[in-house]
Every structure is written in structure tokens, then in C-alpha cells.
Design brief:
The complex is a heterodimer of chains A (240) and B (564). Chain A is α/β, with parallel strands linked by helices and 240 residues long. Chain A has helices at 40-47, 69-74, 91-101, 106-119, 135-147, 165-180, 192-198, 216-225, 230-237, and strands spanning 2-11, 14-24, 29-33, 55-60, 63-64, 76-79, 153-157, 184-188, 201-206, 209-215. Chain A has 9 helices and 10 strands. Chain B has 564 residues and is mostly helical. Chain B has helices at residues 2-17, 22-56, 61-93, 95-101, 107-141, 145-181, 183-204, 207-214, 221-228, 237-249, 253-297, 316-331, 333-354, 364-390, 402-405, 411-444, 450-476, 485-488, 492-525, 534-559. In chain B, helix 2 (22-56) crosses helix 5 (107-141), helix 13 (333-354) runs antiparallel to helix 14 (364-390) and helix 19 (492-525) packs antiparallel against helix 20 (534-559). The longest helix of chain B has 45 residues, at 253-297. The chains are: A alpha/beta (240), B mainly alpha (564).
Chain lengths: 240, 564
């Protein structure tokens, strides 16, 4: 479960996120949409502990990320918008590094890494240094690393960047499967179709404020008001 | 095209340097004070050293310039090696080059841009230091400031430019050969050549041999020294600069100016050759570098001692952090190569220091000066090591730092692992320097181990403080977009940290000066001195070091908790 209460983030005079309140219950797949610079990545970075909120509170699986960061992070799987990896490490070494940070015993970790390599079809690339990877391969390793400890909440920022259709299908199915197994997912994306297909609920953020937050059913009603396209709803609510 | 790109690069530099934000103004003002202090110390040092050599020890003018020539040789080699390592990153690994190569820009323009970028960016502090030393030296002889500015621009800058041009020529040769016989073999070969060349230079221009030879000509040593200089030294650029300075000091411009002519001509020729080679070969060598990198990696995929799959005595989190740091360090060529060079220099210094024979020296001041010089040089080496390898530790995490920052691990644990990784090697090297440079004093003080213990004690505190300061300030000034460790260690923040380290070392030196002086007085003249003891100075030393270390650690810890 992910819960944000009155979260605000300011950078000097700029308010990137303005009094955001949001609750994602266990097992819900939440799509987080918005134009560029709307505050999606800032919100995500606050949830995973990379940014400290200026005010408000963020609770992940009963732990406040500010006061109990270790416990909160223990249950989060995070995939950033750009999959930066340690270039001099191989993909396998990176997975061991992340597994080690989560204190996963080595025997369990060996098995888990083998499963993930197979699941994401990483193959022999896993033993090459990540500096030689394509964007898509880096993204696969990052997503595998996020799932290594069986997280209860997955925060994923733009999961489809750089992925070929086959990889995109694997990611889509994986996320769907995780959600069905009770994992809360907050996914930021620019792909309206992807969000519409997978998400139980969709929120749209604009200028740091949540301007729309509807379930899939409610979204159908909204779409009917326009020309039946999600794109038209999106453009309308983010007009200003 | 070249001017167009240069204009935007300069604009970008000006905008980032003259930032009007309050924090940047405070930071800039502090830098100005520290740089000013450094410049003044360099000036005073050169002035006092020249005055000491010529007036106090009555070293002749030519002998003084022979020593200057030796220092310039070391300077030339240092600039040369530094440029080879930095140029590899800027010419072959930088994202900017990749970007520019996709645009309709002639390859030679990209080469010139990156060469100038490399030369001016990494040499700013060297220019300042060189000019202030020149100012101090020139003040002794009463030269005007205009003259010294002229010497700086027409002698010292070409001298460094020559070194940098040669470095890039050597680098392109390395790339060409690496494509055929492998990167490691070429590097090993080059390394051996440098060592051999340095050995030959110092063997032929050995100051001890030189002075022993000249003793035959007492009291007119200076008049005969030119005859004792080996012929081959006259073909080296450091000798041209030294000869120019020597004849200038004698106001003999007719003999001085030809050396400037030779230097400028040779610099122009070497730079011209560099451009011709780059015109024909830079892009091809860039393509070769793409092939060379995977070849260098080959061995990394085999199972090794630091393999993440192997068991370890440490807790899981500590284990993976340690292994990550070690693997990343040794897989970055510019890191391990630079470490090997610095270890060899440290080894040479330590061996030379341990073999100093003070038994024949009966001048009390000489013992004191030798001790303080070795002590200061040891501290300087430790400071340089910490700057080069510890300062970039946090910044080099780069954008991948998200993976640690979002992990369920205390940030203080990440910081402490970095501290330990930085501290242990620096501490071991510092102890090695301290022990070897104290060996001559054990003999000369009749097997008294007090100075040795004081050296061991000092090196512990100096390593602790310099590592804490460099790690802390490295975190504070971290630029997560800079992938090049050498550039990271030569930024404004790094220079500021180094200057703070120098100020700390000067304070420590001032603190130990009196008790060490008193110790030697007591040891050789059996006279008690009413000044503070070594033990009292040691306590003060520890307190100052403790405070500074805590300051550095707090700054570093706070910096890695900032928004990322």
C-alpha cells in the first residue's frame, strides 16, 4: 500500500508537487500520467526516498519513508525513468549487488537471479559489462533488479522506454502478474494505451496537482463525453 | 565551425562559473580566499627558497638553475603523463565527442576542441601555481611584473603545451599499437620506457654525483658546473627553460632569448605534427578505441576473488558494497594505472629517503630541515593520494547511485564503506612513507625511536584527516555526471579541498617545528630546551586532526542525504 498525504515539493520558488494526496491499496495497478514537467518523476522520487518532501507524509506498506526509510524501502521495487547502471559491472554483478543490499541469502539469491535471467530473456548478456548494453537490455536488468526481493510495492517510471515489442510484452505481462498477486504498482507513463490496458485506476497530474483520478470504468464515462478517445480526455484535463 | 563551438563552450563555462545564486557566491568567495592563500604561499615559498639557496647556502646561480631544471623535468613528465591519462577520457571516451561525431564537423576540429579543453581545464591550477612560483623567483631578481607575465606566456605556457602535445601524440600511437598488439602490452611497454627514461635522467644528472664532482672546483664551483652537465640534457625542454632563466638572471639576453626561440619552434613543430597525425588518424584511432575496450574487459567475465557469488566474512550489505568498489576501481584503466604510477613514485621517494646518510652531516639545521622536508613531503604525498583517489569516490557513483540510495541500507553505512575503502590504502602507504623516511634519523639519533613513533602517529592522523576531508568535500562538490576520475579530482571543489589540506599540513608543520627543533638540539648538543615537548604537540595535532576529520565526515554524510 502506498499513501501520500498533502505532499508538497518545492525547488526554490518552483512548486513541483502541490499538496498531493493519493492512496494506492494493495494489489492495485495505478497509472500515473501527465505532461512533461507535471511532477510525476518528482513524486516518484519522493516515494522511493530520493527526494525529501517539503511537507506532507508518504507511507509505504505502513512505514513512513522519512522516519523509517529502511523498513519502507525493504518492500519497494523501483525502476527509474533512465536505467543507469554501474557501467563497469556485469548485469549479473549488478543483480547480486542489489540482492545483497536487500540482505537476500546467497543460496536464495543464486536461484532468484537465474529465474530472472530466464524470465527476462537476458541470456549471455548477463555476464557482459553493462556499458555494452543497449537501452532495452539495461531496462530489463533494472526491472529484474526491482523484482529480486519480491517487493510488495513497485514504483516504475516510464517502463517502456527503449524496449522492443518482445521485451515490452514481457514487462507488460510481468507487471500484470505482479498486480494480480497483490503487489501495489504505481506506474508513470506517457503511453495512454498502455495505461488504459493495464491500470485499475489512472491519475493525471498537471502543474504538480492531481487533476483527475478515475477507475477504468469511470474513465469510460469520461471518454464518452468527448470523442471516445482517452487522448481527448487527457488533453482536456491538462489544458492549463 | 571551430570558433562557433568554442563560443558556446566559453558561454557555458562563463554561465556555470559566474552563477549568481547565493550559495555559489559564498562558494566562489571562499574559493577565492583559499586560492589567494595558495597563490601567496607559492609566491613566498619560491622567493624564500631562492633567497635561501643564493644568500644562505651560497649555492651558485648555475647550480640553482640546474636544480630548477631537474624540477622542471619532473613537472614536464607529470604534465605529460597526466595529459595522456586525461586525454584518453576526453578524446576517446567522452559523450561530447560522440555527440560531435554525429554532426558535420571535421574530425580535426573535434580533436582541437577536446585537446584545448583538456589542456586548459586540467591545467588551470598548474598555471596559477607556476605563475606564482615564477613571481616569487622573479621578485628575488627584481624583475618587473610585465616581464614575468611575458615569461609565463612565452616560456612556461609553451613548455606545458609541448608536454601536452607530446602526450597526445603518444596517446594516438598507443591506440594505433593497441589495435595490433593489445592495450595491456602497449601500456606495460610505455610504462617501462617512462621508468627507464626517468632513471637515465636522474642517473646522469644525479645531484649528489654532481656536487661531488664539483667539489674539485671549490671555491669556483659555479663557474665549472656547465662542463659537468651531460650533453644530452641540453636537448631537453626543461634545460632550455632553465638556461633561459639562468641567462636572464645574469641579464645576458643575447644568450637567453635563443632558448625561447628553440622552445617556441619545437612546440610549434610538435603541435603541427600532432595536428597532421590527428587529421589522418584521430577518427580511425577513435574507432580502434571502441574495439580495444571490449578486449580490455575480456578477463572480467571469469570467476575471480571478488566475484559476487563467492562467500565472504562480511555482512551481505558490506560485502556487496566492498566488492562493487573494488571491481569498479580495478576495471577503470585510468584508476589502476594512476595508482600504479603513484605507488612507484612513493616507492622511489621512500627508498631514497631511507638511504639518506645523515651521519656525515654535522650541521644541526640540516637535520632539522631534512626532517621537516621529508615530513612535509610525506604529508603532501598522502594529501595528493587522497585527492586523486578519495575525493572522486562519491561523485563517481554517477547516476547509478539511485540503486544504493533507494536500497534498504543506511546512508551512513554506504558512506562508512567508502571511508574505509579510501582510508586503508592511504593509511598503509602513509605508514610506509613515515617508517622509511624516519630510518636515517634512527641512525643519527643513536637508535632513538621517538621520531619514528611520532612519524607513525602523524601518518595515522594525517591519513585520517585528509581522507575525511576529501571524502566529505568530494560528496559536497559531487558531480554525478562526471565519469572521468581525473577530471573529478581536478575540479574547483577538488582544488579547494587540496588547498585546505595544504593549509592543514602547514599548521601541523608549524606545530611540530618547535618540538622537533628542540629534540635535535637536545640530541646533539645535550641542551634542554624550555619549549613544548613532542608529546604536547602530538596532543594538539590529534585534537586539530580530530576536529577537521569530524567536519569532513559530517559534511560528507549530509551531502549524500541530499535530494538525488
Amino acid at each position: 500500500m502506498i499513501e501520500l498525504k498533502g505532499v508538497t515539493k518545492k525547488f526554490g520558488n518552483l512548486t513541483a508537487v502541490d499538496n498531493l494526496t493519493l492512496s494506492i491499496p494493495q494489489g492495485e495497478f495505478f497509472g500515473f500520467l501527465g505532461p512533461n514537467g507535471a511532477g510525476k518523476t518528482t513524486t516518484i522520487k519522493m516515494i522511493v526516498g530520493l527526494f525529501a518532501p517539503t511537507s506532507g507524509s508518504i507511507v509505504v506498506n505502513d512505514y513512513n519513508i522519512q522516519s523509517h526509510p529502511i523498513e519502507a524501502k525493504q518492500s519497494i521495487g523501483y525502476v527509474p525513468d533512465i536505467p543507469f547502471l554501474y557501467e563497469k559491472l556485469t548485469g549479473r554483478e549488478f543483480l547480486y549487488l542489489i540482492g545483497g543490499l536487500f540482505n537476500i541469502p546467497k543460496m536464495v539469491l543464486n536461484k532468484r537471479i537465474s529465474e530472472l535471467i530466464e524470465h527476462f530473456e537476458i541470456g549471455d548478456w548477463v555476464d557482459k559489462r553493462t556499458e555494452d548494453y543497449s537501452q532495452g537490455m539495461k531496462q530489463r536488468i533494472t526491472i529484474a533488479a526491482a523484482l529480486i526481493h519480491h517487493p510488495k510495492a513497485i514504483i516504475i517510471d516510464e517502463p517502456l522506454i527503449g524496449l522492443d515489442p518482445r521485451s515490452a510484452k514481457i514487462v507488460r505481462e510481468t507487471l500484470h502478474h505482479q498486480s494480480k498477486n497483490g503487489v501495489s504498482i504505481l506506474m508513470s507513463t506517457h503511453s495512454l494505451a498502455f495505461a488504459e490496458e493495464l491500470c485499475d485506476r489512472i491519475g493525471i497530474i498537471n502543474n504538480g496537482r492531481l487533476v483527475m483520478c478515475d477507475t477504468r470504468e469511470q474513465l469510460q464515462i469520461q471518454k464518452a463525453r468527448y470523442d471516445g478517445k482517452f487522448e481527448s480526455v487527457f488533453l482536456e484535463v491538462t489544458k492549463q | 565551425m571551430l570558433i562557433h563551438i568554442l563560443r558556446y563552450k566559453i558561454l557555458s563555462y562563463i554561465k556555470s562559473t559566474f552563477d549568481r545564486r547565493f550559495v555559489s557566491i559564498v562558494r566562489g568567495t571562499a574559493s577565492l580566499f583559499v586560492f589567494g592563500g595558495f597563490a601567496y604561499i607559492a609566491y613566498l615559498f619560491a622567493l624564500e627558497a631562492t633567497s635561501f639557496m643564493l644568500d644562505h647556502t651560497h649555492t651558485g646561480l648555475y647550480l640553482l638553475h640546474t636544480f630548477i631544471s631537474m624540477m622542471l623535468f619532473v613537472f614536464f613528465i607529470a604534465v605529460n603523463l597526466g595529459n595522456i591519462i586525461v586525454s584518453y577520457s576526453t578524446l576517446y571516451r567522452s559523450m561530447e565527442v560522440k555527440f560531435l561525431l554525429t554532426k558535420p564537423i571535421p574530425f580535426i576540429h573535434i580533436f582541437i576542441l577536446k585537446f584545448l579543453d583538456n589542456f586548459f581545464y586540467s591545467s588551470t591550477t598548474l598555471f596559477l601555481g607556476a605563475f606564482m612560483m615564477l613571481l616569487g623567483y622573479g621578485s628575488y631578481f627584481g624583475y618587473s611584473i610585465y616581464y614575468l607575465v611575458g615569461v609565463m606566456f612565452f616560456v612556461f605556457v609553451p613548455f606545458m603545451f609541448l608536454s601536452a602535445s607530446l602526450a597526445v601524440l603518444i596517446l594516438m600511437t598507443i591506440m594505433k599499437l593497441a589495435g595490433r598488439i593489445g592495450f595491456r602490452k602497449v601500456l606495460a611497454g610505455l610504462f617501462a620506457i617512462y621508468l627507464l627514461f626517468t632513471y637515465i635522467f636522474f642517473d646522469l644528472s644525479n645531484p649528489t654525483k654532481l656536487i661531488e664532482n664539483l667539489n674539485r672546483f671549490i671555491p669556483n664551483m659555479d663557474a665549472y658546473i656547465a662542463q659537468s652537465i651531460p650533453e644530452f640534457l641540453h636537448y631537453l625542454p626543461n634545460q632550455w627553460v632553465a638556461e633561459f632563466l639562468y641567462y636572464s638572471a645574469r641579464n645576458d639576453m643575447a644568450n637567453a632569448l635563443p632558448y625561447v626561440g628553440i622552445l617556441l619552434t619545437v612546440t610549434a613543430i610538435v603541435f603541427g605534427v600532432c595536428l597532421i597525425v590527428a587529421h589522418r588518424f584521430y577518427y580511425r584511432s577513435w574507432l580502434i578505441s571502441l574495439k580495444v575496450q571490449p578486449a580490455v574487459q575480456g578477463s572480467a567475465e571469469r570467476k575471480h576473488f571478488f566475484d559476487f557469488r563467492s562467500r565472504s566474512m562480511f555482512s551481505t550489505q558490506i560485502e556487496v558494497l566492498l566488492k562493487k568498489e573494488i571491481l569498479i576501481f580495478f576495471r577503470e584503466t585510468s584508476q589502476w594505472l594512476h595508482l600504479v604510477i603513484m605507488l612507484i613514485l612513493t616507492g622511489l621517494f621512500s627508498i631514497s629517503a631511507s638511504h639518506i646518510n645523515l651521519m656525515r652531516v654535522h650541521v644541526l639545521d640540516m637535520h632539522l630541515i631534512t626532517y621537516l622536508v621529508l615530513y612535509a613531503f610525506g604529508g603532501f604525498m598522502v594529501g595528493a593520494l587522497a585527492l586523486r583517489f578519495v575525493f572522486p569516490l562519491i561523485g563517481l557513483e554517477g547516476q547509478a547511485f539511485w540503486s544504493l540510495r533507494t536500497g534498504p541500507i543506511k546512508q551512513s553505512k554506504i558512506f562508512m564503506v567508502k571511508f574505509i575503502i579510501g582510508f586503508l590504502p592511504v593509511f598503509i602507504i602513509a605508514e610506509y612513507i613515515a617508517i622509511s623516511s624516519n630510518i636515517p634519523f634512527i641512525k643519527v639519533t643513536g637508535a632513538s625511536y621517538l621520531l619514528l613513533w611520532f612519524g607513525i602517529f602523524s601518518s595515522f592522523w594525517i591519513s585520517l584527516t585528509t581522507v575525511a576531508l576529501n571524502l566529505g568535500f568530494g560528496g559536497y562538490f559531487a558531480n554525478y555526471f562526471e565519469h572521468n576520475p581525473i577530471r573529478a579530482a581536478s575540479t574547483q571543489g577538488a582544488t579547494l579541498t587540496f588547498l585546505i589540506t595544504i593549509i592543514y599540513l602547514v599548521i601541523i608543520l608549524a606545530l611540530v617545528f618547535m618540538p622537533i627543533s628542540a629534540y635535535f638540539t637536545k640530541a646533539f648538543m645535550s641542551r634542554n630546551s624550555p619549549i613544548i615537548s613532542i608529546e604536547t604537540a602530538g596532543v594538539l595535532f590529534a585534537v586539530i586532526s580530530c576536529l577537521l576529520s569530524a567536519f569532513g565526515l559530517i559534511i560528507g554524510l549530509r551531502s549524500i542525504r541530499r535530494d538525488f
